[in-house]
From TrEMBL:
<dbReference type="GO" id="GO:0009117">
    <property type="term" value="P:nucleotide metabolic process"/>
</dbReference>
<dbReference type="InterPro" id="IPR001310">
    <property type="entry name" value="Histidine_triad_HIT"/>
</dbReference>
<feature type="domain" description="HIT">
    <location>
        <begin position="5"/>
        <end position="115"/>
    </location>
</feature>
<protein>
    <submittedName>
        <fullName>Histidine triad (HIT) family protein</fullName>
    </submittedName>
</protein>
<dbReference type="InterPro" id="IPR039384">
    <property type="entry name" value="HINT"/>
</dbReference>
<dbReference type="GO" id="GO:0003824">
    <property type="term" value="F:catalytic activity"/>
</dbReference>
<dbReference type="InterPro" id="IPR011146">
    <property type="entry name" value="HIT-like"/>
</dbReference>
<dbReference type="InterPro" id="IPR019808">
    <property type="entry name" value="Histidine_triad_CS"/>
</dbReference>
<feature type="short sequence motif" description="Histidine triad motif">
    <location>
        <begin position="98"/>
        <end position="102"/>
    </location>
</feature>
<dbReference type="InterPro" id="IPR036265">
    <property type="entry name" value="HIT-like_sf"/>
</dbReference>
<feature type="active site" description="Tele-AMP-histidine intermediate">
    <location>
        <position position="100"/>
    </location>
</feature>
<dbReference type="Pfam" id="PF01230">
    <property type="entry name" value="HIT"/>
</dbReference>
Length: 143
C-alpha cells in the first residue's frame, strides 16, 4: 500500500528504529514513546486490522511477541511490567490502519500511560451473559 506509513517503514522508504526483523514481521520503536521502549510489532503483509488477519499470520506475529518483550524488559532494569495491546478501528484508538501490536514497558503507576476497565458486572443478569456468550459462539467459524 503506497500511502501506509508502516509499509514505508517496512520497505525502508522512511527511517525507523527497527529492533527486530524477519521475513514476516518487523518491530520498531513507536515514534510517540508513550513509555521508553514502546515498540510496535507489525506484519510485513499489509492488513488493516484483526478483521483482515488470518490464523497463520496471527500465529506468526503473536509468536514473536515473547521474544521481543523479553528483550525490551532485559534492556532496562527499571521495567516492572508490560502492556501488550492491539487496537482495531478508530473507536478503539487505532490511528494507523496497518495491523500492529503495541508493547508498552511499564515503570510505575505514574508513567505516561493508563488503561481502565470499567466494572459493569452489576449491569448484566446471568441470562443476559448467557445470551451474549451464545450469540458470539454461534458466529465462530468451524466451532
Amino acid at each position: 500500500m503506497t500511502d501506509c506509513i508502516f509499509c514505508k517503514i517496512i520497505n525502508n522508504e522512511i527511517p525507523s528504529r527497527k529492533i527486530y526483523e524477519d521475513d514476516d514481521v518487523v518491530a520498531f520503536l513507536d515514534i510517540t514513546q508513550a513509555t521508553p521502549g514502546h515498540t510496535l510489532v507489525v506484519p510485513k503483509k499489509h492488513v488493516a486490522d484483526i478483521f483482515e488477519v488470518d490464523e497463520v499470520l496471527a500465529a506468526t506475529v503473536a509468536g514473536k511477541i515473547p521474544k521481543i518483550a523479553k528483550a525490551i524488559k532485559k534492556s532496562n532494569p527499571k521495567i516492572k511490567g508490560m502492556n501488550i495491546i492491539n487496537n482495531n478501528g478508530k473507536v478503539a484508538y487505532q490511528s494507523v490502519f496497518h495491523s500492529h501490536i503495541h508493547i508498552l514497558p511499564r515503570f510505575d503507576e505514574q508513567d505516561d500511560f493508563s488503561i481502565h476497565f470499567g466494572d459493569n458486572s452489576k449491569n448484566f443478569t446471568s441470562e443476559e451473559l448467557d445470551s451474549i456468550a451464545l450469540t458470539i459462539k454461534s458466529k465462530l467459524e468451524g466451532y
